[in-house]
Every structure is written in C-alpha cells, then in structure tokens.
C-alpha cells in the first residue's frame, strides 16, 4: 500500500512538497488497508518519501 501511496503527491514546478493525505487514505480504504496504524504513521513516513523523491531528482 505504501509503495502505491508514494505516487499520491502534491507538487509544484519546484518539485514534490507533500503527500496528498486525502488520496492516500482513499487508496488505503479501497485496498482494505485503512486502519489506525496507517493513520498514525503516515505523517512520520511523509518526509521519508519526499526526501526519496528529492534524491531521485538530483
């Protein structure tokens, strides 16, 4: 689920700056993976995913 969620991002011309939490939570719900643990860890995982995108663009 998290690999697919990594594609649900908010971006501007300068690059990706955040995950789209609404889209991530809807995706998780559709996949049957929406639970309290995901909701709790999502803000902790967001910076890791954003840094990975920044690293890939270098």
Give a written overview of the molecule:
By secondary structure, this protein is α+β, with helices and mostly antiparallel strands. The chain has one domain. The chain contains three helices and two strands; from the N terminus they run αββαα. Strands 1-2 form a two-stranded antiparallel sheet. A hairpin with a 2-residue loop joins strand 1 (9-12) and strand 2 (15-19). The longest helix is centred in the C-terminal third of the chain and has 22 residues, at 36-57. The mean pLDDT is 90.
Main beta sheet:
2 strands, antiparallel
Helix content: 55-70%
Shape: elongated
Radius of gyration from the CA trace? 12 Å
Extract low-pLDDT stretches: none
Number of domains: 1
What's the end-to-end separation, in Å? 26 Å
Q: Count every helix, treating DSSP H or I runs of 4 or more residues as helices.
A: 3
The strand line-up of the biggest sheet is 1-2
Q: Would you tell me the structural class of the helices and strands?
A: alpha+beta
Q: Total strand count, please?
A: 2
**Proportion of beta-strand residues:** 15-25%
Mean pLDDT: 90
**Succession of helices and strands:** HEEHH
């Amino acid at each position: 689920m998290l690999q697919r969620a990594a594609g649900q991002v908010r971006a501007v011309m300068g690059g990706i700056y955040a995950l789209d939490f609404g889209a991530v939570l809807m995706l998780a719900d559709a996949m049957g993976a929406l639970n309290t643990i995901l909701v709790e860890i999502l803000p902790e995982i967001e910076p890791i995913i954003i840094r990975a995108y920044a690293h890939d663009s270098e």
